Amino acid sequence: TERxxxxxxxxxxxxxxxxxxxxxxxxxxxxxxxxxxxVGDSYELSKRAAESSAEYVxxxxxxxxxxxxxxxxxxxxxxxxxxxxxxCPMAGMAEALQVDAAWAxxxxxxxDRDVVPVTYMNSYADLKAFCAEQGGLVCTSSxxxxxxxxxxxxxxxxxxxPDKHLGExxxxxxxxxxxxxxxxxxxxxxxxxxxxxxxxxxxxxGYCQVHERFRVDHVEQARREHDARVVVHPECRREVVEAADxxxxxxxxxxxxxxxxxxxxxxVGTEIHLVNHLQRWHPEVDVVPLCGDACMDCNAMRQIxxxxxxxxxxxxxxxxPRNVVEVAPREKELAAVAMxxxxxx
Length: 345
Ligand code: 13P
Ligand code: SF4
Hints:
Blueprint: H1 2-16, E1 20-25, H2 30-34, E2 38-40, H3 42-51, E3 56-60, H4 63-72, E4 78-80, H5 96-109, E5 115-120, H6 125-133, E6 137-139, H7 144-154, E7 157-161, H8 164-173, E8 180-183, H9 188-193, E9 201-204, H10 216-226, E10 229-232, H11 238-243, E11 246-247, H12 250-259, E12 265-269, H13 272-281, E13 286-289, H14 299-302, H15 306-317, E14 324-325, H16 329-343
Parallel strand pairs: 1-2, 1-3, 3-4, 5-6, 5-7, 7-9, 8-9, 10-11, 10-12, 12-13
Antiparallel strand pairs: 4-14
Helix pairs in contact: 1-15, 3-4, 4-16, 6-16
The structure holds 1,3-dihydroxyacetonephosphate (13P) and iron/sulfur cluster.
1,3-dihydroxyacetonephosphate binds near residues 249 and 250.
């Protein structure tokens, strides 16, 4: 039962004391969020991991988040992921080997323009390392516009990976929409027809399969049926972000609801678990899911079952660290450069 599980988690945590810190992403299930030391967006959690002195960091989130925590924590800290199955499909849409091959083709097509690669945090360590090597950096949804500005101080164009929607929304925010092109890694004919030489922002053709499902008519429906204001995540399509009243990272969405006046209605366009948390955390605000009944949940995030957290804590308390996420040393060193550039923004 949930009660038994809570007792077992508390007992293991009491034994481990300050040796362990539990971080949970905003999309995690209620049971996990309730027993975490910190809950937040990707950027906040990476900062928490960097600031923590705990020997073990348990990350209730997806693989790239645990990897990022390993990259920026000290070498004597160990990061554990309750389930190794929790992989963000978008992160898998830009594999370092494939990007490496595309880079040669792309930089040749760009002629004498310097391209700076910017990768979204939702990517694997080897791609972060590649970006560092090519003079680029990492960003999250809360600082993508600053990462673009950083890149434009150093080069003529940005290659943004893997999320084309966040890239397009960021370009739009910076007034660069005329110079945006899409780079299709799977279609050579499309690529030949793409005019990279004049582009400011080159978008890799990746996307989040949860956020891509939101549509403008969901926004119109929320206004019509609930008289709601609308806040969405910038992984949504550009027309959805434009139709909404606001957009921001998961924590910026939380802040929007926290600042709402009692009695206001907000439709929230993001992963359903966060919408459910917001309904519990702010009963004075009327929070509705943007898509109504179509349940927008993230398969990858859902892999972290509360029982796995209990298991990993109990094993750790028994001296058996399980599911250690460890980035290879050379990759870690380079990826750390790309992440530190972000943390310094
Ligand atoms: P945040 O950085 O806004 O928490 O987003 C992470 C994510 O995976 C959104 O789908
Ligand atoms: Fe990846 Fe989308 Fe899930 Fe976020 S919501 S972890 S981007 S699949």
